[in-house]
Design goal:
6 strands; elongated; alpha+beta; about 140 residues
């Protein structure tokens, strides 16, 4: 009887003292009301094998404002019942309301082509950073 009581208390304690994991990444863009969610994104072996990539560009026309991942109580319960082999997580992507406007002034725009050599890429980035530091203004990099 004593072993049974200890086992029940251990299980209840582990359930009561587990917190809900939550991580949030913000991009600084203004969030919209458009939200994409995956409530049971499959991760494996205590999260060591993460869920597949969320293709946010298919859902958010203007980019992403915030990404949240969490393990809810139900997600953790499923993980405990599978001994951590399967641990689902909740992923919530909040879309941005609009993209940042890139100025029409081309003096802050630098272009790198996909077939450029490393020297050309390095030189272009160096020029952009130097001008940005000198003028205290951001530069915009266009990849073609």
């Amino acid at each position: 009887m004593r072993k049974y009581t200890i086992a029940v208390l251990a299980i209840m304690g582990s359930i009561l003292f587990t917190g809900c994991y939550h991580a949030q990444i913000t991009t600084g863009m203004e969030p919209s009301t458009e939200v994409y969610e995956q409530t049971f994104a499959s991760s494996w072996i205590y999260g060591l094998v993460p869920p597949s990539v969320v293709e946010a560009q298919n859902h958010c026309r203007n980019g992403v404002a915030r990404v949240e991942t969490r393990l809810s109580f139900v997600n953790q319960l499923v993980g405990m019942l599978s001994f951590g082999i399967y641990t689902p997580m909740h992923i919530k992507v909040t879309c941005a309301s609009s993209r940042a406007d890139i100025p029409t002034d081309r003096s802050t725009m630098y272009t790198i082509n996909s077939d450029d050599s490393e020297d050309v890429i390095s030189s272009t980035l160096s020029k952009a950073v130097e001008k940005s530091l000198k003028d205290s203004e951001p530069f915009y990099l266009e990849m073609k």
